[in-house]
Amino acid sequence: MYKNRIEIIKKHLEVNIPTNVNNKNGIENELFNPIDTNFNVGELKLLIDSVEASKYKDATREFIKNHPKFKENFIGLNMESYRQLVLEQCVAIANSGLIHLTDIKNNLHRYAGAVEMFSYYNNNVCTKLGVHYTLFGGTIMFLGTSRHEKYIEDANTLKTMGCFAMTEIGHGSNVRGIETTAHYDKQTKEFIIHSPTPTSEKFWIGGSYLHATYTTVFANLIIDGTNHGVHAFVVPLRCAKSGSIMNGIHIKDCGHKLGLNGIDNGQIRFTQVRIPRENLLNKYSDVSEDGIYKSQFNTPIKNFAATMAPFIVGRMAITKGCSGAAKTSLSIAIEFSHLRKQFGPTPNNELPLITLSSQQRRLMAPLARTILFDLYIQRLTNELCQPKLPASIHAHCSGIKAVYSWFCVGALQTCREACGGQGYRSANRIAEFKNDCDIVCTYEGDNTVLMQQLAKYLLGLKKKPTTANRIYLDGDDAKSLLFNFANIHQLFETREDIRLAELKQIISNSKESAYSAFNNAIPWAVKLGFAHMTKIVFQNSVDTLKTKNVKPLAHLVMLDALVSIEEDLGWFVSNHLISPNVAQAIPFLIQDLCSEVTKVSKQIIASFDIPENCKPESKDLISDLF
Ligand SMILES: Cc1cc2nc3c(=O)[nH]c(=O)nc-3n(C[C@H](O)[C@H](O)[C@H](O)COP(=O)(O)OP(=O)(O)OC[C@H]3O[C@@H](n4cnc5c(N)ncnc54)[C@H](O)[C@@H]3O)c2cc1C
Questions:
Q1: Which domain range does residue 422 map to?
Q2: What residue numbers does the annotated binding site cover?
Q3: What is the CATH number for 251?
Q4: Same domain, yes or no, for 567 and 603?
Q5: Binding site membership of 449 for ligand 1 (Cβ less than 6 Å)
Q6: Long-range residue pairs from 303-311, CB within 8 A, at least 24 positions apart, any chain
Q7: Which of 134, 203, 443, 527 to mutate to test the pocket of ligand 1 (most atoms within 8 A of CB)?
Q8: Inside any domain, residue 468
Q9: Active site (catalytic) residues
Q10: CATH code where residue 389 lies
């Protein structure tokens, strides 16, 4: 076994172009060559920024660099001052014209591009923007009709601020279980919004404790004792002129949190709050003055599904928070690793941390994945801008939100550790990102729940397994077998097929109810979701390469593909897709690619074009101490 391994190491270190690789488009050839260190950083920047969003991102970068509110310190502020600063930053953004409340419907590239840039700086700002623009604005825009357009003008300049009240103390993921009621009163032509139990109080409502003028409330629409299910209503929380809290509204602070302490999350109790009939967001369903309920759908569950559908835009937008945090943190850790010296061949010749194989491995792999996730999100954003959305859009927005946020939390931890003790200092920023991004795994749909939505979509496709193309990668020349995009694609495709068949079988073998059968299979559903997302992110990267072969994308794609395989290596080997020989070579190939990418890591992070005030004061993370 060890003899074999040494042979493999020798082979993969040889730079030769093997003959048995399917190299029709020639891109794989690059993988056998060193990366040209003189590549065009501007080209890479445009690729990562996207042609559609590039000008909006540049304008936002300039704004962040120059606006005085983005030069103020936020580290260590108490909650009150932090919330005030974030509010002022959001007002400055709203007044700058960089984004508009209607963007999520009419110019998604502008909105998403700006949010990504603000998340270079801090996730509080983009969370506060997200609550107002995508959640409040999204419900108005996608669930409302012309009678709700009156909210747009003032909300656009943040003269009035909106929040989004869906979650209750008793119900988070299971939105259909919420208890808040909206009884229709025919006499006064009003809805009465009420929290009937302690567990029905809205909780975690971002922006509600201090700043929001309005909220969209999700509540059970009830007419003459008949519950028509969950609908959305606009409810004023505060007087738009005086700011005083409206009658029947009680708001408490959710208190100090693990992160995002610049956001004023609140707990809201409604006591018989009367709102006009017109405040029902009536795109799909309406109630006439005399209390007749009409819906475009014949069942409450279909109406519910339509009511929830607009939040896919928010899920895509939220990945921008992960993207910015990961790119800034990776940049900090990589710059630090180029400067910080520890150990060396002699006591007088200490070398930068970046020369350590472990440092290269832990930083280059997430660097590659961040870029490839970003390319995939560009694709999703383009899909979201189409007049007719693809059937896959909901599942894929859910899937990328889950895999990107899980990945981001891990990557930020890696960046923190890669900077040693200095990574722990709040002034050096990574700690702040780490705490703030943690919650992305939970809000706007808990990741485990979202992965099930993706799995259910895949189960519904009735896709036939492509067993005819099943491959077994075996042989002495692992490099040739693996540096082949068709082979990698086939590995990912087959894994998805097997995972799908396995999930179907677990469910169909179950003698229990449909609910329990699926419940018992959730871990497999999550694995299927991962298999699918890995495949489509990889496929999108290869498609991008074919049209825009920007350096060093080919190396990044292969590095991430091999890391993905390594993450599930036992599975690939035990399912006879990769031989033990080939499997043993993978960590070495990864290390080679990490070392290659390290050579251009400074150029790659330069392509992110992160404004300096988004980073720590000193690149070595210590100069500010003297
Ligand atoms: C900082 C912050 C800001 C927020 N902002 C807002 C806001 O502005 N407006 C708003 O309406 N809400 C907001 N939320 C609420 C957020 O959307 C919910 O926390 C989220 O939907 C999860 O609900 P939950 O907390 O009740 O967890 P639960 O649903 O109770 O989940 C707890 C655990 O059980 C697991 N679980 C639950 N159901 C399933 C299932 N079917 N299958 C497998 N596992 C499951 C989950 O994975 C999770 O690990 C915010 C939350 C936080 C923390």
A1: 2-40+311-463+473-614
A2: 167, 206
A3: 2.40.110.10
A4: yes
A5: yes
A6: 303/228, 303/229, 303/231, 304/175, 304/176, 304/229, 304/230, 307/143, 307/218, 307/230, 307/231, 307/232, 308/175, 309/142, 309/394, 310/138, 310/139, 310/141, 310/142, 310/143, 311/135, 311/138, 311/444, 311/445
A7: 443
A8: no
A9: 444
A10: 1.20.140.10
Q: Say if residue 351 is in the same domain as residue 422.
A: yes
173 ligand 1 Cβ < 6 A: yes
Q: What is the pLDDT of residue 325?
A: 98
Residues 143 and 183 in one domain: no
Taking only the tens place, the pLDDT of each residue in 478-506 is 999 999 999 999 999 999 999 999 999 99
Per-residue tokens: 27: 């891109």
Q: Ligand 1 mean position to 202 CA, how many Å? A: 12
Q: List pLDDT tens digits, range 591-603.
A: 999 999 999 999 9
**128 and 215 both lie in a single domain:** no
Going from the Cα of 206 to the center of ligand 1, the distance in angstroms, rounded, reads 13
Domains held by the chain: number: 3
Give the model's pLDDT for residue 3. Answer: 46
Ranges of residues in the chain whose predicted pLDDT is under 50: 1-3, 5-6, 8-24
Whether 47 is in a domain gets the answer no
CATH number at residue 99: 1.10.540
d(CA 424, CA 441): 22
Cβ of residue 415 lying under 6 Å from some atom of ligand 1: no
Measuring from atom 30 of ligand 1, which residue has the nearest CA? 172
Picking from 109, 130, 156, the residue at the C-terminal end of a domain is 156
406 to 48, 52, 492: CA distances (angstroms): 21, 27, 20
pLDDT of the residue at 17 = 32
Q: Which residue has the least CA distance to atom 42 on ligand 1? A: 449
